[in-house]
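Exercise: predict the fold of this chain.
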Amino acid sequence: MSKKIAKPAQTETPQELLREIFARPVLPDESQDDYDALKAVLLAELKPRSPYAELLADQLVELEWDLRRHRRLRDALLRAEFRHQAAVALDQQSSDLFMSFGPNTAARELAVGLVGTDTAKQQAALTELEEVGASPAEIMAKAYQKLARDLEPHERHIAEIEIRRRRLREDFDRVNTSPVQPIEEAQLVET
């Protein structure tokens, strides 16, 4: 009985093989082009001088990408909770009975405008927020309080990545500044 084995990908250099081994899958809301641009910029700045230095540089890129990812995920959680808390504050007409169904549509739209990029909608939402006696800082504090347990893994992971990145950068600098040892030509010795 024969067993089918996947044929290895054709690679030109050891660096390409390393890139394939350590290929980074992107999440649905991420862009491979953004990752490639980040990698190009960082590699241009780092200028690795050996295959091992290039491997370390690739790992630095991965850590930077992961750091940005976790910051983005943390911020998305906060934005969503901020929108919810703002909608609750902006929903003046509902009683506690109706709040179990969530804030009304107008309040939700104002809350979306509050965190959006449209300055006119943002200003209108801020005005409405002032009229009900709430401030963005108060709403953000409530959002942090509500999400403290959910944010903690991201905050811890971000701190760990920053430490790993700093140590890896020190290793990279040490490897990249050491002289590259040329490989001596081999001589065929006949016996």
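Check your answer against the key: Residues 28-175 form one domain.
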